[in-house]
Amino acid sequence: MSGNWQRRWQPLLQQWVMISARSAARPWSGAVPSRNVSTAASHDPDCYLCPRVVRANGTHNPNYAGAYAFDNDFPALSFEAPGAAADEDSAWQTRTAPAHGQCRVLCWSERHDATLASLSTTEMRAVAKLWQAEYKRLSETPGIANVLIFENKGVEIGVSNLHPHGQIYASSFLTDTASRMREAQCQHAQNNNNESLLISLLNDAHTQEHLVVEENTYFSVIVPFAARFAYETWIVPHRHVASLSDMDDEELQELADVYQRQVRRYDLLFQRSAPNITLLHNAPCNEEESALNKQCCFHLAFHPPLRDAEKLKYLAGFESGSNNIVNPVQPEIAAEQLRAIDLQEWQP
């Protein structure tokens, strides 16, 4: 199967991705990410996310155990932002709009040296319950249109605190990606007898034959046909589920289990506690557009920043200037490599 020097259409983002498998073989004398094994203590009195620590704003963290959430002390969004609406009367050169919303911090564990890969099954499922509870509350908050749950993991992507944690940005507006994804899914449903775009992608014959990493009762892990990152994977539900709110307990537990197996695959693939950007894409939640939002299907996306164990993926000149990502690993080959990983070899 030849996939080199090929453009592939990414239907959710409505853009082309370039597959250039030969570029991975270029001689490399650039930066090499460290493989140093973490020697972090289980509790760091200087870490603002550890239990019992006083945070930068003077707040005392409780002596929490397990998954724990609190308001971000330095939020990028706030309902205290000035202005009630976009300034429609201003000149286009200086047009503004308020950045209303709420930002939350989600600690996965009280242990400073933990990762989602290292948690017990019970602890990992508690994290998924926290995802769901936070999404439900924020999506029902007046003025919130979009809730993005995400994790930035690893010094390679500039994480400011190494305690195991994620974040939520609940915004009064739809982000660019949320808008693109909703438009794509609505158009697909309109043109295909109300068919779900994500479910159609999952059930595609090529995906099923070449791109499935793992398949379970309620979810599958796939490498998308037009993957933008070398080892990008998605967790896709087997039925159209708009958000975490629509999942029952069995589905949520399996999502947690599948998620943990996938991050362990990355650890084994890259031979370290692997850096990652993880995004939980729920449907938008603004009530006035609920009919459009119902066409959106939940999926969870992993965007590893590594091309291989020793190379980071940088969005440099061509990609920054063109907005067309170049993937140096053919998605079918990435799926084959990930399928071949023996999870029994994973160790904390």
Write the layout of secondary structure elements.
Blueprint: E1 6-10, E2 15-19, E3 68-71, E4 101-107, H1 121-139, E5 146-153, E6 165-171, H2 176-191, H3 197-203, H4 205-211, E7 212-215, E8 219-222, E9 233-237, H5 249-270, E10 276-281, H6 290-293, E11 299-302, E12 306-308, E13 311-312, H7 317-322, E14 326-327, H8 331-339
What is the architecture at the second tier of CATH? 2-Layer Sandwich
Number of domains as seen in the coordinates: 1
CATH topology: HIT family, subunit A
Q: Spans of 5+ residues with little confidence (pLDDT < 50)?
A: 23-30
How many helices does DSSP assign? 8
Beta-strand residue percentage: 15-25%
How would you characterize the overall build of this protein?
The protein is of the alpha+beta class. The chain is built from 8 helices and 14 strands. Helix content is 26%, strand content 19%. Helix 1 crosses helix 5. It starts with 5 loop residues before the first strand and ends in a 9-residue tail after the last helix. About 2% of the residues have low confidence.
